[in-house]
Each structure stands twice: as C-alpha cells, then as structure tokens.
Amino acid sequence: MFYRKNIIAVTGMFLCVFLIVHLSANAILLFPETTARTLYNSYSTTLRESIVIKIVAYLLYLSIIFHVVYAAIVTYKNRRSKKDKYIMNHKHETSSWASQNMGLLGVLILIFIVVHLVNFWARVKLGIGEKVGLDAYGNIDVYEVTYSLFHNIYYVLFYSVLMIPLGFHLHHGLQSAFKTLGFYHKKGLAVLAKISLIYAIIMSIGFAIIPVIVYFK
Ligand code: HEM
Which of 21, 38, 16, 18 is nearest to 29 (CA)? Predict the structure, then answer.
C-alpha cells in the first residue's frame, strides 16, 4: 500500500516539471506571428529529432500511465475503506474540496489529455487525421495546427475551461506529494502549500490564456 502513494507522488512531481517546460514552450505562441511560427516549429522539430527528448517523452508517457492507474486504484480503495493508509497519513490535513475530489478532477484532466493528444500528438507524430503541411523552412508546421485549432471557439473554450480543474488538481496534488515524500516540518509545509498555490495559478492561467490570445491574434 505504501508504495502506491509514492508512485503517485513521484510521477506527479515529474508531470509538474513537464508542465513548466510545456508552458514555457507554448508561451512562444504569444510572440508576433512570424517569430512565433519560426520558433515554435523549430522547437517542435528539435523535440521530434532529439534522442534524449525521445527518452524523456517515453518516461513522460509511462508517468502518465502509472499516475492514472495507481491514482485510480487508491481512489477506489479509499472509497471502500476509510482505514486506507493513504487517508491515515493525510488525516491531519484540512480536507479541502479539491482533496476530496481528486479522482473527479483527474478524470477531467485525463479527458483533456486524450483530446489534446488526438489534436496534436497523433497528427504530428503519428500522421493520423488531416495532413500537416510544411513551413517555409521545410519543418512540419505545428504552429499552423495550433493556430487553426485555436481559431475554433469550441476548442478555445475546451482548452481554457478545463484548466480550472487542472489548477485545483495541481494545487492539492503538489502539496500532497510533498507530504507523501516526507516533508513533515510544519513551517516548511506552509511554505510548500504557498508554492503549490502559486504554481497551480501560473499553470492554469498560463495554459488557459494562450488559446484565447491566439484566437484574437
Ligand atoms: C495552450 C495549451 C497547450 C498547447 C498549445 C499545447 C501544445 C502541444 C503540442 C504542439 C504538442 C505536440 C508537441 C510535438 O510533438 O511537436 C503537445 C504535446 C503534449 N501536451 Fe500539450 N499543449 C497545451 C497544454 C497542455 C496541457 C495543459 C497538458 C497537460 C495537462 C499537455 C500535455 C501534453 C502531453 C502529455 C503531450 C505529449 C508530449 C510529447 O510527446 O512530446 N499539454 N502539446
């Protein structure tokens, strides 16, 4: 039982680091059109061609799978038994709405990730769906894929609104991961709780405003 929550915490932390890199990369979309297209496409090409990034990407996919599977098992077991150690270890924390609904928030994020991967990853990496053209430098035009997707108001709403559950999930998840991994110092935890809040706000607002700004570009 003990190892499950550690796997959730470690994979969750890794996914949090990925989100920082992913948001920074997607912030390129906020630059003026020509700069954004060149930078975004060359960043995307580097991602596809680097062997190191490929290994990290496989770690990322594994992390998502392990995080989801173990979180589902823990949520299921917690529902069946209040004596579950995961709850026991966290019995002193104030039980926020997010902490009680991590499963639901997780499902919403999973729906987001599946749609998102179909929108981008499947098209760009697997060549599934509408064919992706090349830019002036001969790179796959991922910028165009993003630009046209975010000119559809339904996708803009989908991408922006689902950043609300992402924010709640990150806020509770990050502080919980710190506790699970052994941070018990009261003052330290209070600081980590603030860091988790700031992190969650930056991630959710950051990801939510990009589609909106691209829409009005
Ligand atoms: C403004 C919002 C976002 C944009 C524009 C965006 C864009 C992209 C693009 C273009 C790719 C494909 C990269 C490539 O192979 O060239 C991608 C991959 C991915 N995105 Fe996002 N993303 C956004 C938000 C998110 C969020 C919020 C999450 C997670 C909750 C996420 C998770 C992923 C994952 C897991 C991959 C696959 C990683 C890989 O194989 O390299 N994305 N995204």
Answer: 38
Which residues lie below 8 Å from residue 134, measured CB to CB, with a gap of 6+? Answer: 140, 141
Mutate to test the pocket of ligand 1, among 17, 19, 20, 22 (most ligand atoms within 8 A of CB): 22
CATH of domain 2-216: 1.20.1300
pTM: predicted TM-score of the whole model, two decimal places: 0.91
Identity of residue 144: E
Kindly report, residue by residue over 6-60, the tens digit of the pLDDT.
Answer: 999 999 999 999 999 999 999 999 999 999 999 999 999 999 899 999 999 999 9
Pick from 135, 138, 137: which is nearest to 147 by CA?
135
The whole-angstrom separation of Cα 144 and Cα 129 is: 15
Task: Output Rg (C-alpha) for the chain, integer angstroms.
Answer: 19
- Shortest-distance Cα residue to atom 41 of ligand 1: 57
| Complete DSSP assignment for 173-203 | HHHHHHHHTT---HHHHHHHHHHHHHHHHHH
Helix runs in the chain, H state only:
2-26, 33-49, 51-80, 85-89, 97-100, 102-116, 122-124, 142-149, 153-161, 163-180, 186-216
Domain ranges of the chain: 2-216
Quick check: CB of 146 below 6 Å from ligand 1?
A: yes
| Residue 207 near ligand 1, beta carbon < 6 Å | yes
Place of tokens 């920082």: 20
